[in-house]
Amino acid sequence: MPVVYSKLDASPLPFLHLLEVLKHLDRTGWKRWLDRPESVAAHMYRLEFLVMFAPTGVDKERCRWIAFCHDIAESFAGDIPTYAPVSKAEKYKLEDFGIRYIESLLQLVDPKLGANIRAAWEEYENGNTPEATPEGRWVREMDKFECMIQAHEYEQSTYGEQNLEEFQGQTKYIHSQEGKDMLELLQQERQAHFQKRSQRTPVIFVKGISGVDTKTQCDLLCKEFDFQHISLRDVLREKAADQTYLHAKFVRDCLEENVNVPTQLAISLLELKINEGRKEGKSWTLVEGFPENMEQILEFQKKVQKSNYVLFLSCSSAETPRHSLGGGSDDSDVVNHLKAVEGYFKEICGDGSVEEVYALAKKAVEDFIQKAEIEK
After folding, report:
1. Residue 42 to residue 29: CA distance in whole angstroms
2. I want to staple 306 with a disulfide (CB 3.0 to 4.6 A). Which of 159, 269, 327, 365 is the partner?
3. Maximum Cα–Cα distance for the chain, whole Å?
């Protein structure tokens, strides 16, 4: 009897709906440390780009296709971590059935695609065998390296409270010189991260609502306490004018076109400026007008340090919204986030005379310094 099928059966839609599973399927190996780990699709996406840095002589486009398909069977089998009580043979069997299902879904619409997916999956699976192709071996190696990158990023996002050293054991799978070069840089980055977490960077964020003069107060505080005084905007302008800086033109274009500089780049430049001041003998830094938004403070907490002192200049005027920040936008979420760590946030009235406000600001800073001494 002839096979009966519908128009839907002969369309890509059932296959595409299966792929949707990968967008929401957790990489379960992370769940021992994190409540909301990355998805399988997220891992596959970055691996596709990572494998494009393949050594000379390795087919990059083939690598990309293998990376694109290497975990596709998990849409059927699920993500089975190494610690699960499932043998390698059973895991392979389940994933093989996943590929069989994909081939079945594609048999009417594009059977060649199904065959190509199987070939890529098998090439990846054989990537650690003597019969491995250069492409399969490279993708397998980079799959391990991508995991190491993600582990370090999770260490950053948990503010150093999680040490995912276990995942750095993947180094034994990095054999190529290209992989070892990238691994060395990652290890240096990770070492610097934990070194920073073991030290306190004396930083005070100085913010104020619209109409409050934070600059004058910062200038006075820096003069009396010999602090470094910086603002993110000034740092960006300085780098935009620095012809030796790799991204100078891009930063300059962002400033000229009123486009936000990527947060990762902005925070890395801010950190460099803070460290420059420390090398010049400025033990404390006032960062005026920072953070401008939640993304900035979260990135600073991830990459630099979690708890930071905050001096917030409010206003008693009934005409001014209590937490309307510079630019007039209501950003109370930022202020509430900054308040979260007890003892690190001081709010003073900023609408008195310069001398009156400074007396309050000076007392707040002295309290911060005293707290820092106690916590040493």
Report:
1. 14
2. 159
3. 95
Scanning the structure block, which residue is given the tokens 């490279």?
A: 138
Model pLDDT, residue 318? 41
Among the listed residues 218, 209, 358, 374, the one whose alpha carbon sits nearest the alpha carbon of residue 285: 218
What is d(CA 310, CA 347) in angstroms, rounded to the nearest whole number? 8
Radius of gyration of the chain (CA): 27
pLDDT in tens, 142-166: 999 999 999 999 998 887 677 788 8
**Contact (CB, 8 A) for 346 and 367:** yes
**CA-closest candidate to residue 259, choices 240, 276, 275, 278:** 240
Rounded Cα–Cα distance for residues 39 and 26 (Å):
4
User: Residue 314: enclosing H or E segment and its boundaries?
Assistant: strand 309-314
Distance CA(342)–CA(168), nearest Å, equals: 34
The answer for residues whose C-beta is within 8 angstroms of residue 83's C-beta and 6 or more apart is: 29
CA neighbor of 315 nearest in space, from 214, 222, 232, 205: 214
pLDDT at 349: 94
Q: Which of 201, 229, 200 is nearest to 217 (CA)?
A: 229
Please report the domains of the chain, with CATH numbers, ordered by start residue.
13-197 (1.10.3210.10), 203-375 (3.40.50.300)
Q: List all residues 6 or more positions away from 54 whose beta carbon is below 8 Å from its beta carbon.
A: 60, 63, 135, 138, 178
Which residues of the chain carry a pLDDT beneath 70? 160, 317-330
pLDDT of residue 317: 63
Centre a 10 Å sphere on the Cβ of residue 344 and count the other Cβ atoms it contains.
16
Return contacts of 182-187, CB within 8 angstroms, 24+ apart.
182/53, 182/145, 183/145, 183/148, 186/145, 186/148, 186/149, 186/152
Please name the residues in contact with 154: beta carbons below 8 A apart, sequence gap of 6 or more. 30, 33, 34, 37, 162, 164
The pTM assigned to this predicted structure is 0.87
